[in-house]
Specification:
Strand content: 15-25%
Largest sheet: 5 strands, mixed
Shape: globular
Structural class: alpha+beta
Strand order of the largest sheet: 2-1-5-3-4
Organism: Massilia suwonensis
Order of helices and strands: EEHEEE
Protein name: Phenol hydroxylase subunit P4
Mean pLDDT: 93
Helix content: 10-25%
Number of strands: 5
Pfam family, one: Phenol_monoox
Radius of gyration: 16 Å
Length: about 120
């Protein structure tokens, strides 16, 4: 995301630079059509984390309370990374899948549109 300084020639510390996250990178993750979680969450993740671990370990801890979560067909899940559709390789790391510092990862789950199809 491009940021423009309010003052010309401003230079200041970049508090959210990847160097400040102790080997991790911030990844934003959102679940489309599930506004029980109205915004993408921010997670400091190791770049070498396998994408499969993100799906198997992280996502249930975040979204598992939603009744739709247990019904997700992971083979049919549609993914986007930084606004472009992509198909993750579950055996490769998030970095090898192109997920970088401050990337936005979104998942869409066809047929699951929130509680009572309300988007919630």
């Amino acid at each position: 995301m491009a940021v423009k300084a309010a003052y010309e020639n401003y230079s200041g510390p970049n508090a959210d630079a990847v160097e400040n996250f102790h080997g991790n990178q911030v990844v934003y993750i959102g679940w489309d059509e599930h506004l029980m979680f109205p915004f993408a969450g921010a997670f400091p993740l190791p770049p070498q984390m396998p994408f499969a671990a993100l799906v198997k370990d992280l996502l249930p801890s975040v979204y598992g309370v939603h009744p739709d979560f247990a019904r997700i067909d992971w083979a049919a899940t549609e993914w986007s990374l930084d606004g472009a559709r992509f198909t993750p390789d579950m055996d490769r790391s998030i970095a090898e899948n192109g997920v970088g510092h401050k990337s936005l990862l979104r998942l869409a789950t066809p047929g699951l549109n929130g509680i009572g199809n309300t988007g919630f």
